Structures are given as structure tokens and as C-alpha cells.
Amino acid sequence: MGGKAKGSMDRRKSQLCSTGRTRRGERGTVLFLAVIVSVLILLATVGAVSTALSLGKEATYALDQTRALAVAEGVTEAAQRFVLEQVSNFKPVPSSGSVSLGGASYPYTVSPIGSSFRQTDSDGVTRSVQHYRISSSVNTGDGYATVDRVVDLTLTPLFQYMIFYQDDLEILPGPSMTLGGRVHANADIYVGCGNRLTVDSEYFRCTGSILRKRKNDGTESTGIVDIKVSGGGDYNEMDNAHDSELGTWTTYALDTWNGTVQDGAHGVKEIAAPDIQTIKAFNPDGTKGYYHANADLVIRDGAAFDRDGKAFALPAGTIAGRNMYDAREGKTVAVTEVNVGLLNASGRFPANGLIYAYRTDASATQPNGVRLTNGSEVLKPMTLVSEDPVYVRGDFNTVSKKGVAVISDAVNLLSNAWNDTKTAAGPLPAASNTSYNLAIVTGKVSTPDGGGNYSGGFENLPRFHENWTGKTAKIRGSFINIFDSEIAKSPWRYGGNVYTAPARDWQYDAGLNDLSNLPPFTPSAVYFLRVLWDDRLPVPFAADG
Fold first, then answer.
1. CA distances from 39 to 31, 36, 44, 49, 334 (A)
2. Does the predicted model carry a pTM greater than 0.90?
3. In which region does residue 295 sit, left (phi positive, over 0), alpha (psi from -120 to 50) or beta (all else)?
């Protein structure tokens, strides 16, 4: 008994000891596992924090990079606009400059690539093209970016067209007439003739519709309209049933004239009208208008001034005051007459060819103006600009022809026979055959949209004041209308003591296709064609560790 009891007790002790060691081992294992888990959690937390910090740096860097790139692109765009403004104002292209954005100043550079060259498209329009690289490098925070823009600066002179209208063009002459140059309107063309109109050109286009009717009353226009077929010497007629209102017009026009006649239905796009700088003597803020400020000869009333406003004397008779009766305006108007022949010999012909002439007493109620006379020969290329009506008297620029232009509120043509004897009572003085080599940019009194008084049309863009019946007004030049008259704004009238129409021998002066023959300060449509845009960024940010 005693031995069994003792053995039993020893076994229970042994089991108890074994159980205690097991429990202590289990507790140790649990503690070890807890430590391992804690370490893993700590490591995970550290990793997460490190990743978050790294991602934060990347996000900040990416944001700074985006800002730098946006600023560099903005600076380059601003530099491009400034270059356009400079060129439009006949000023040199800057080689460098800076742009202020958000209170900070950022630099840019402009550098020509190669030499300028001339480019003539399939329609015969000649442009001047120069490659430029415009660059900007910007730092913002940790970001850095460089933008290089390679562009073509393109200048299309206004006088590349025989007729260019910014809005509706009406061509409705009474006598037969031939148009010998490119015709473009950034709106509709209304066309007809009292007899026969011949379009001797392979470019007769507009962005709107070509209509064989009158804008002023909507009636069908009269006469025969013959238009040259592109690529050949044939002419096909446009009758009243076959204009833009024809259901099959798009294909009909292409089949009939092989591309000469096109309108908006053919995809003709607007040709950006050049930004004619103000022809006003003064801006609203009192500063000189663009042409006034840049003219080497300024004629104000009866006196001559240089560009700096200093008065100087011209030979007697070079500038004179005259009066004449303008029946369209219904008034006797005062004109400052400039004798071009005497100016040629004066030694004071403007060095840059630009004359600005105006009268301080001209207004819409008293449309006084400027008159050019004795101008059969002009010393050298010349442009005369005025905010007032301009009258050109007698043969003009017909001897040793130069590039000459008039930019004014209205252009009036007087024949060789004009002698200031016209009166309100009549009779209408007889004109004589007269020739003008002259490009004009002038205003008109528009036919109201929806109908009303006829504008007088292209055939009266230069205004007449005599009995021209049986006489010829010969013009070689370019006819541009991109604004309305503000001084000589009486509506068009015909017959009576106003005028009768000449035989109009008007053609485009092909010499204007040569850009070296253009009048000084010829306005141009200036625009950029983007060739290449390169955004350069540093190697992407790499996180530490």
C-alpha cells in the first residue's frame, strides 16, 4: 500500500511539473509571437509613413512641374502675341523680353531661323514667311520646364486682292465692266450688271453665298455675268437660276467654273482682315493715332510738320486751301490741296513715304477733306492716310509708276477736266478720260441688312462727281473695304447734279504681287503657323530609399 501510494504521488508531481513547464512554454510562445507581430506592425507603420512622405514629395514635385510648364507655355504665348503686335505695327521683332504673371517676371527669347522667304499659293497670293523660335524657361518651387515653339510668321499684304470686302460685297455696275483680279468677301456677294460683267479671274469667292440678286430690295439682278473657267480661257455665264440658292449648287459651281467660283458651301474660310491701325488723328486718350504718329510728313489744315511736330515751310503753292461742291454730301466743302509735283521738288518728300493729312474742321456735318493734285508723277513710293475724305484730281501716278496708296474715310476721283466750277444749281460738269495707278483702303455707306438704300456697290467705292458718260476712268490698283465711312457718310445717289457713270477700265495692278513694289506701310494680315512645340521637363522625380 505504502509503495503504491508513494508511486502515485510521484506520478502526480511529475505530471504537475510537466503541466507547469508546458504552460510556461505556451506563455513564452505567445509573448514571442506578440513581439513579432508588434515588430511587423511597427515596420509596416514605418514603411507606410516613409511611403506617404515619398508620395508627398512626388505630389509636390509633380504640382510644381505642372505649374512651371503652364507658366512657360503662358510666357511663350504672350511673347508670340507681342511679336504679332510689333510686326503689325511695322516695328522690329524683339530678340528677348519678359512677361509678368502673378506678380513675377519671366524671360523669353525670340530668334529667327534662317532668312525670310516668299511663298505663293495655288491662288497666286504671295506671302512673306519667316521661321522663328520662341523659348521660355521657368522655375517654380521645385519645378522646372522649358518650352520651345517654332513658328512661321506669315504676312499677307492687303493689296494681294483686286477686291477685298470684310462684309457683303455688291457688284452691280450699269455699264459693262471687267474685273481682272482676285475677288474675296468675308460675307455674301450680290452680283449683276446693267449690261455685261466679265470676271477675268480664277478667284471669285466668299464665305457666305453668291447671289444673282440685289441686297437692297431682294429683286433679281439684271444683265449678263460671265466668269472665267479655271485652267482655261473659256467663260461660263452665271444666270439668275444658277447661284448659291440652287439645290445642286455645290457640284454645279465646280463643274461649271472648275474652282473659280466658290462660297461657304465649298468650305471657303474667312480671310482675316488686316488690323488697320486707326486712321484717326488722335486716340481717345489724346495721343496721336498710329499713322499720324509715324508719318514723316504731317499736313494739318494749311501747315506742314515733321514727325516730332515741328513746323516747316514748303514752297509756295505746295499746300493751298480750296473750296468745291460735293453734290453727294450736298455741301460746299473746304479741302486742303496738296500739289504732289511741287512736293516732289521741295526736298521735303517724306523719307519713309508716309503722309498723314487732316483738317481740324472736318466733321460728319461738314465733311471737309484733303485733295491731291498734279500727281501724274510721284517721287517715290507713297501712302497718304487721312481720317477725312480724300479727293484725287487728274492723272495720278501714271509716269514712272510707283507703289502708291490712299487710306481714308472716303476716296473721291476727279477727272483731268475738273476745275471747281460745279455748283448746287448745276449743270453737271463734263469729265475727261483719266488714269489712276492707286491702291485704296476706304470706307463706304453700307446697304442696311434687310434692305434699304443701295450702297453704290463696288463700282462706286471710289466716288465720282462729274458727267462721265462716254468717258473712261482707268484704274490699276487694289480696292479694299473693311470699315464704314464716318465723315463722308451721305448715302449713294446717281444722276442729277451728282454724277453719271464712266466706262470702268479697272484692273488689279499685277505689280503688287511683287512685295517689293508695295506702297509703304501696306497693311498686312499677320499670323503665326505653329510648326513645332517642344515641352522639355527634367527626369521624373525618384523617391529616396
1. 12, 5, 8, 15, 103
2. no
3. beta
